[in-house]
């Protein structure tokens, strides 16, 4: 379907839900790797914390090239299903295989070779994530040109993210404990989540069969260099990249520290993680329609500033937590996190297709893929930098690694590092994002004015 006049289009509900379901793939990938993988590497495979952090960081150098290239490939793809949609199934299959590689390593992977093996598995992870997520994020810019319809579309993505949290952050710890923990427990988690990821990609592909898309323009395509040069002229997009980087870096710090914090600081089992994420998920689902109304009233940039501020305050309060806190008090923080995260995801994601439309109206070029590729590059750098810096920081502060998965007595300096990683580091990143939002100018009126000017 090729529809070049979609400024007032109302997307079929099934299409919106189907596209939203696709986010289960990257969401599960992000959640279980950022929450569990660092601890799996340090406490089960015996990789030193600093080395594990370096492995995360090194694997993302590869992403600096692959995401923009995938965007170009996606933009130039010709198929009966559009330019971007065919990659949903292929990407999901590769993503599923990477989860098995990461959490169910073969028996010959031992402490002496684990770091090299995990580096290879993380490259596979990055490849699958790229193949799926770059075309996936390029789709909304073609599905509708309505400023607020995009927020509605993104509300289904936020809903799906919360559903994915049920699998990746609530059920995964339960499965891990039920399977006996250790490498055997992580193997069950890896295979289970891989199956969920593959099914989600197939369902999303099937349900978006009626999604509008743009055909590949006739004539020679601009070179990759030319595309990058003109992308650099899109000021709102560049601003959004920086804003999203610090927002995602904050989340990456928090998620990377949760598993350590619950076990080492609160001195509780992983089932407490399930309670925390269940609370966060419930609060997020309830908050989605509220954030939609707030956004229509005060605009997307101000709404995003408010959500970031709430999350910063909620995360900073972990400094007051200790092993004697009641479960009820512990769960108050994830409640605030869930409310804020819903607003950040909903509004932050809906601003990306706005910047892509802004480019199309300025230049007349169809380049959703290359924009999505650059966006996901920044996204994955943030996802990698958080756990990477967490591992390096923990190592520098004396964190003791192991291979049995048991709670090794940690020095006080390591406990302090965990506190700082879950509270101060995310808050600083979020305040930087808020500061950048003061200078963000692309709103509905400017978008309409750009249309009138061309």
Question: Would you kindly provide a written description of the structure presented here, covering whatever features stand out?
Answer:
By secondary structure, the chain is an all-alpha fold. It has a single domain, classed as MFS general substrate transporter like domains (Growth Hormone, Chain: A, Up-down Bundle). The chain is built from 17 helices and no strands. The radius of gyration is 21 Å and the shape is globular. The two termini are 25 Å apart. The N terminus is likely disordered.
- State the name of the first-level CATH class: Mainly Alpha
The radius of gyration computed from the alpha-carbon positions, rounded to a whole number of angstroms, is: 21 Å
Shape designation: globular
Helical percent range? over 70%
Biggest sheet character: none
pLDDT averaged over residues = 82
- Output the structural class: mainly alpha
CATH homologous superfamily descriptor: MFS general substrate transporter like domains
Number of domains: 1
Low-confidence stretches: 1-7
Oligomeric state of the chains present here? single chain
Number of helices: 17
Helices and strands, in order, run as HHHHHHHHHHHHHHHHH
CATH architecture type: Up-down Bundle
């Amino acid at each position: 379907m090729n529809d070049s006049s979609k400024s007032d289009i109302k997307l079929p509900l099934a299409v919106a839900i189907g596209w939203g379901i696709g986010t289960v793939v990257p969401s599960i990938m992000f959640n279980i790797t950022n929450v569990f993988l660092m601890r799996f590497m340090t406490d089960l495979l015996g990789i030193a914390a600093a080395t594990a952090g370096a492995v995360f960081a090194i694997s993302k150098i590869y992403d600096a090239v692959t995401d923009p290239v995938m965007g170009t490939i996606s933009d130039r793809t010709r198929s009966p299903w559009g330019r971007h949609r065919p990659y949903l199934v292929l990407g999901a299959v590769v993503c599923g295989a990477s989860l098995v590689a990461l959490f169910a390593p073969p028996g010959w992977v031992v402490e002496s070779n684990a770091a090299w093996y995990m580096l290879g598995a993380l490259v596979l992870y990055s490849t699958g994530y790229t193949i799926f997520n770059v075309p996936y994020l390029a789709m909304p810019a073609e599905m509708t040109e309505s400023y607020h319809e995009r927020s509605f579309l993104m509300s289904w993505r936020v809903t799906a993210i919360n559903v994915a949290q049920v699998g990746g952050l609530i059920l995964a710890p339960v499965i891990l404990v039920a399977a006996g923990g250790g490498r055997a427990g992580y193997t069950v988690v890896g295979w289970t989540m891989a199956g969920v990821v593959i099914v989600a990609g197939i369902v999303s592909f099937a349900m978006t069969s009626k999604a509008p898309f743009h055909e590949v323009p006739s004539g020679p395509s601009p070179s990759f260099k030319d595309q990058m040069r003109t992308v650099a002229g899109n000021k709102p997009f560049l601003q959004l990249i920086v804003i999203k980087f610090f927002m995602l870096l904050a989340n990456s710090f928090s998620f990377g520290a949760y598993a350590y914090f619950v076990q080492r600081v609160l001195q509780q089992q992983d089932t407490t993680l399930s309670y925390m994420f269940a609370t966060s998920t419930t609060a997020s689902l309830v908050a989605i329609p509220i954030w939609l109304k707030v956004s229509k009233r005060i605009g997307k940039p101000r709404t995003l500033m408010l959500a970031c501020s709430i999350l910063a305050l909620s995360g900073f309060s972990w400094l007051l937590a200790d092993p004697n806190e009641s479960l009820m008090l512990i769960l108050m923080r994830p409640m605030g996190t869930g409310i804020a995260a819903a607003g950040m995801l909903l509004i932050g994601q809906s601003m990306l297709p706005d910047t892509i439309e802004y480019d199309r109206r300025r230049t007349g070029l169809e380049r959703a893929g290359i924009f999505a590729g650059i966006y996901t590059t920044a996204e994955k750098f943030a996802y990698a930098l958080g756990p990477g810096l967490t591992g390096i920081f923990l190592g520098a502060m004396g964190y003791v690694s192991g291979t049995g998965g048991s709670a090794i007595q940690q020095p006080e300096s390591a406990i302090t590092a965990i506190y700082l990683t879950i509270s101060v580091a995310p808050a600083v990143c979020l305040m930087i994002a808020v500061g950048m939002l003061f200078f963000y100018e692309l709103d509905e009126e400017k978008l309409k004015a750009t249309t009138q000017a061309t």
